[in-house]
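Continuing from the previous page of notes. For each protein in this section, the sequence appears first, followed by its structure tokens. Read the first protein now.
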Amino acid sequence: MRERKRYMWLPFLILSLAITPTRSNTLFIYKSCHTTLYPELCYLYLSHFATRIGTSPRLLAQTALAATLSTTRTTSKQLITYTKTHKMTRREMSAMKDCLEEIGDSAYELHISMVEMGKVRSGSDFLFNMNSIETWVSAALTDDDTCTDGFSDKRMNAEVKIMVTRGASWSLIHHAFFSVRHHYRCNS
């Protein structure tokens, strides 16, 4: 229960960050997202926070991490609700249980990433801190992939697959961080 309260403020924080963007801010986000695996999704999501982000690689990275953590938590809640309101086979229930565990791990790793991001300063520990964050984000992305892999069997209910893969779109936002790290390293 305490864990839930800790993250309840994230959606409000993310919504409060969205204000009218300027051209230079949106251009910065566009260029940062352009090198990601899903540039349109990255830009579509992060451009809503252009005024808050400005042209700061740090704020872009922090926003990408906060948004991903918030989306991960929301997806977890939706999947839990789904399991309570829909009949599932034993195989689907087992895969969903594993998936929810992976999502929980992912949320923890994203939280640690945000904590580490708060410690990043230029200087001798800069690369170490950035590498630590990359490791945590990469682990979170792996957890997300593992979750969706559990539903790849053709015998799984199509509705359950759609629910999980649609919910797994949170992993796409992770890619924004990998683009941001390059800018962050170059500009700090």
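Done with the first. The second protein uses the same format. Note its length before scrolling.
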Amino acid sequence: DLYRKVFVFRKDPSDAYVLLRAKLEQPLQNFTVCLRSYTDLTRPHSLFSYATKAQDNDILLFKPKPSEYRLYVGGKFVTFRVPEGHGDWEHVCASWESATGIAEFWLNGKPWPRKGLQRGYTVGAEAAILLGQEQDTFGGGFDVYNSFSGELADVYLWDAGLSPDKMRAAYQSLRLPPAVLAWKNLSYEVKGDVVVKPRLRE
């Protein structure tokens, strides 16, 4: 149980990552991914990487610089420009639905303008899901200069879009619907220099 705990990625740059196991029965027409990160990195870094054998960036949450997030679906991406962080935890949720090709991005409980991406696409079900590295091949092909260094917590993946109320609940760490990846009962394997520690602040 990772309640009130975090993954600390100690090194920069780093070859470490955390492998996540999801219970996915079928390909994704919709998804929402949420997580909290705390870092002083200014270089590009990967937050959540979901690769299939057909597409290494089937889902990718990536931060190329402090003022920008990118959401990739099926190898294509949209950019969300954000204020630079003030040395604090950042909570992000990104969701996508195939039918409309609409991507939503929420930062610290607030929605950004929606964007369009990959209408009609389907995300594959057999995936290698990683925190801390960006996959260029299925389960590998890392570039250490895209690695994450810092603290990650509250990682969730749903096979559905979340309502605005649930997006805000994720930010506030309130009760959430059942997820294919849930922080409270996360099935994970640490590879390399990552330490599980209690959260230092609320």
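What the second structure shows: Residues 164-171 form the longest helix (8 residues). The CA atoms of residues 17 and 191 lie 5 Å apart. We return to this in next week's lecture.
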